[in-house]
Structure formats: structure tokens, C-alpha cells
Amino acid sequence: MGFQYFSKCVFLALCILSQGLANGVFGFACNWGTRSTHPLPGDITVKLLKENGFNKVKLFEADPSALKALGKSGIEVMVGIPNDLLASIASNVNAAIQWVSQNVSNYISKNGVDIRYVAVGNEPFLSSYKGQFVQSTYPALQNIQAALIKAGLGRQIKVTVPLNADVYQTDSGVPSGGAFRPDVKDQMTNIVKFLSQNDGPLTINIYPFLSLQSDPNFPKEYAFFNGSAAPVVDGSITYTNVLDANFDTLVSALEKIGFGSMPILVGEVGWPTDGDPNANIQNAQRFNQGLVDRIVKKQGTPKRPTPTDIYIFGLIDEDAKSIEPGNFERHWGIFNYDGSVKYPLNLGGGKTLVPAKGVKYLQKRWCIMSPQASVLDPNLAPSLSKACSVADCTSLSPGSSCGNLDTRANASYAFNAYYQTMNQSQDACQFNNLAMITNTDPSPAQSGCKFNIMIDVGKHRSTSSLAAPRKVLGSMVLLIFSFVFMLLSSLSV
Length: 493
Ligand SMILES: *[C@@H]1O[C@H](CO)[C@@H](O)[C@H](O)[C@H]1NC(C)=O
Ligand SMILES: *[C@@H]1O[C@H](CO)[C@@H](O)[C@H](O)[C@H]1NC(C)=O
Ligand SMILES: *[C@@H]1O[C@H](CO)[C@@H](O)[C@H](O)[C@H]1NC(C)=O
Ligand SMILES: *[C@@H]1O[C@H](CO)[C@@H](O)[C@H](O)[C@H]1NC(C)=O
Fold this sequence. Notes:
The chain is an alpha/beta fold. The chain is 39% helix and 14% strand. The protein has 13 helices and 17 strands.
């Protein structure tokens, strides 16, 4: 009797747990970018994802270490194809077959990765690309779909194309006027029709931050979800934030070509914390908290009240990302480069962000400008250029976290960034005798400016081979336990 009661309790607990999962209590999605000089190790990143409730992740390319770490994690994966592969995949179905075999089938069969989507290209129709991928995207999409079917994956994996919101516009200034950009309208129509026939969604990247950053007249409050901006009235609908308005502009554009109920994913949305006056902790926390609240509440937009998957951009900062769009590009993470928490986020259900665990760092050592060196030394400027051409100095830009340092501290920041990027090698702290190594943290007190220490990538590599068997053993024990519980409870019910 006592046992029966106990096993029923266990059964109930399991039911509640799985119900919770099905309800999406732990259901966030994000982009995992890997353009870092010292990437956070894959196993630690996957644990970070799981502990923070991310059960869907998007990769920009088939990064081997990320994919291997995602194997048997329970996380659903979208794998991207970079734009520079589109032309070859478009012109030759065998290239598509090769890509699917090497970068999809392999990881499913050998590593147990739960791949659900292949994203063909990344914002290939972006205006600033001046049309260079416009002709290859659609044929590449067709070839990848054919290759997935050939590999027996046509049901399990859906194709999509992540597009920037600049593929549509509205001439009337309100969402109902939405239409595809004239130069890509035909291609968009082909792609949408093809995706629809193959049950693939359209993926759209929407950046309220970029609206604000690129337009000095943009009403700042309209970028946020709880802002006090004057609402935009569109017929019977009132828009209070640009994300809703932008998404519904796409819905209108789709209606105009006859695909008004086409499924849409939000492939990227987020807010950076540094590298621009509008990119700071307060704005990022405000925006992302509003975004998370919507996801938790399962809120859609006025024209699409049913919620969709929203992939937050991004998980962690990437110090080697291209800064062509701006210095903020390396600071989109909700976590710092090392998986530490930048700012708290309430994830619903009493949960808040938790940091990565088990990260190994290089020594507690920094490189700074030597007190004996003069700020008038003619070697200073070339030394700074050298440091910042290799290392990430974006936090020094005006309006950024280290934008107010004096010349000496500014130089120290650049020297240290270089020294850390070069794995603290002795000769990386020379700079014509302008620099020296210190054991005292030079980060200025009471400011958001931090002189970081890099991740010890080598130490992680040498220990990861030891950690793997213990993990497998752990999950086997868990599996056996749950099997015994199920057996016992089914006997006693
Ligand atoms: C698999 O993906 C990687 C990363 O994008 C790429 O370098 C490689 O060429 C791909 N393999 C094939 C066969 O296309
Ligand atoms: C909006 O929400 C953020 C985060 O929840 C909060 O800090 C801020 O005070 C709110 N602002 C307004 C105008 O309500
Ligand atoms: C700080 O360093 C950056 C990068 O080298 C440089 O562009 C900037 O002029 C420096 N600012 C000051 C105040 O020295
Ligand atoms: C830093 O160390 C890691 C691990 O040993 C290595 O892969 C990487 O290339 C090194 N970086 C530099 C710039 O030497």
C-alpha cells in the first residue's frame, strides 16, 4: 500500500514534469554563433542552454564542435548554410547531396543530433549585398530539399530561408501596406510557394535595435514592448511596438501574394550591450525582458495571435565577428563571452538566468601600459593599431563601456585585449617596451568597463576526453532508474 502510494506519486511527478515541458515552460530558442577567438567549449555551452530552458538552437553553419556537443542533448537544431556556399549548391545537386551527407546525415546517425531545419543562406537578399545571392538562393533551396528527400530526411527536416526584414516594406507607413521589395518580389514568391509546398516556414530576422541605431528620428520608446511611444493606428489595429508592426507588415506582404497563412519563424531578434550609445545593459535588459515575457505568455502579434518560435540573438558575445555593420556586432549575447550573466532576466516560473559552469581561464594576469612609458611616445599609436587589428577593441568606441578611459587606460585596455587573445604569451606584451604584465586587475572601479581574461581553450581540450565517459555513465544510470520506476508503477497501478 505504502509503495503503491509512493509509485503513484512518482508517476504523477513525471506526468507534471512532462506536462510542464509540453507546455513550453522551458521552451526558449536562440542563435549560437561561434565567431570567437576563444570559444566557450561545446559541452559547457550545451549545458548552459539546457539549464536556461533553451530547447531549440540555430547555428549559422555546420560547426563540428557545436554539433557534436548537441548530440543526444534533447535540443532541436537548425543548421545554416552560409551564403558563400549558395552558388555551388545552386548549380549542382551533387554539391547539395554532399552538404546534406557531411553536415546533416552524419551528425544524425553518428552523434544523435536532433536536426529539424536546414536554413539555406543567411539574409541572402540583404540590400547591402547588392543582389549577389538573389539568383542562387531559390535553386539552392530546391537542391537542398531534393538532397534531404534523397537522404530519407524529407519528413524530419524542413527547409527554410532566413531573411532580413528589409525584404519587405510599406509605402503607406502602416503594416497593412506591406509588400515585398520590388527587386526580390519574384524570387520571394517562388521561395514562399516552394516552402509552402514542402511544409517549410519562412524565417525572418527583425531588429528594433537597428531601426533605432540607423535612424536618428526613430521614436526610441517604440522599440520596446512597454514603451510610451505614440501608438501606430492601422485600421482597427493599434501597434505599440515596432516588432509587432514589422512582423505584421510581412503578414500583409504574404497576403498580397496569396500566402497569408504561411508559417513564420523569427530567426533573430535581440539587443546588444556595447559598441554603440544605444547598445547598453539597461536597453538590452529592457528589450529582452519584454521579449522573454511575450514568449512565456505565448503572445503573438495583432494579425497572428498564435505564438511562433522566436530565436533570440544571441547566446554569447563573439569577439571575432565582423564589425562591418557596427562595433555593436560583437556584443549581442545575453551572456558574456565566457557564459557569465550580463544582466538578470526573469524566465518565468520563478527562474532566472544561470551562468555557465566549469569554465577554465588563463592565469590572473593582465597586460597594461607601463607607468614609465609616455603617452607622447610615437610608438603608441602604431602599437594600438596593431593590438586592435587582432584583438577586439570595440568596447573603446565612443558611448561604449570603456569609451571614457584616459589615454593611458585606453592603451592598457587595447594591450590587454591583444595579450589575452594571444593566450598571454610573453612576447604579446611588448609593444616597443610600452607595456608590462601585472597581477592586479586593471579594470576601472565602478564602471562597466572590464579588462577580461580569456578562456583557456587548451586546458578544456585536454580534459574534455576524460569528461565524456562519466557523462555517458550518468545518463545510463538515469535511464535504468527511470525504467525500473516505470515498471514498478505500471505493476502497482
Ligand atoms: C559542411 O559545412 C561546413 C561549414 O559550413 C563547410 O565548410 C563544408 O564545406 C560543408 N561540407 C560540404 C560537403 O559542403
Ligand atoms: C519596462 O520594462 C522594464 C523591464 O521589465 C522595466 O525595467 C521598465 O521600468 C519598464 N518601463 C516602462 C516605461 O514601463
Ligand atoms: C583609444 O584607443 C582606440 C583604439 O586604438 C583609439 O582609436 C582611440 O583614439 C583611443 N582613445 C584615446 C582617448 O586615446
Ligand atoms: C590559443 O590556444 C589555443 C589552444 O591551445 C589554440 O588553439 C589557439 O590557436 C591559440 N591562439 C593563439 C592566437 O595562439
